[in-house]
Write the structure tokens for this entry.
Amino acid sequence: MLKTNEKQLVEFLLQCQPGPPKSRPSWSVDHQGEPFLLPSIGGITLNVQAGDSAFGLAGDHVEPGVSCTADTQKPFDHPNNSVQMYSCAGNTATIVSGEAKGEKGVVLGHHGGSEHVIVDFPRKVKEKLIYSDTIMIHAIGQGLRLLDFPEIVPFNLSPALLKRMKIRCVGDDVLEVPVTTIVPAACMGSGIGASHVAKGDYDIMTSDELTVSEYGLDKIRFGDFVALRDHDNRYGRAYRQGAVSIGVVVHSDCRVAGHGPGVTTVLTCASSLIKPVIDPAANIADRLGIGTALKTSKKK
């Protein structure tokens, strides 16, 4: 078991609510120059959840589950920036008002631009929600450290999810991390250059069909753990040869140039001390029994 500073972590209760769907005021234009009008960010998205494919939807930047915000009028200000920065993948979110009061969900990550925290709830729960309902996130994880691996830095990762990722020590200083996909550095787009990764995401560009096919990028699902080659996320999102970052997929593929499935960073290292290994079940849904995995277990 990995030794961490879990007992020293600060826990917050963060208050938020579902954020209504957002739309652009006019046509969007894709990377082929074609205009489109499609569902996009935000909302209580009934038929999309963790474990579903991030490709093939009649949408753009679709966020699975419930898109949560503290203040829709001040997405980049307090208190919404605090909800963004302190919510971590794997945190529990509890509905505390309305018809769905008492129901629980799981944080997948956060999406920059929309400034939403993405929370997975079962469809039957989402159908009871309204946009004025209150959701409390039990936030713990920011500041997490791996005591025996100080060069590997966690961000946005709850201790509970870390324990379920099936990470394995290899030798004295390398961690073997299961992922569904290994993404080449050249595919990382929108979000590069951000000063830190404690909020927001960045996108896997999918405009080149040959690269998408070669690396199986079109097989990515919401909630997948993916490895980003040669990307150092310790002090922002930057290219560095030999670096490896691990992230969680939080929104769908996109048609706009420079965009694609969005990734919230959970682990990063400036050198090759993270060794990604392919595991088709390296997804939050499969690891925590939520989303599509919850639906499958109920059918058995």
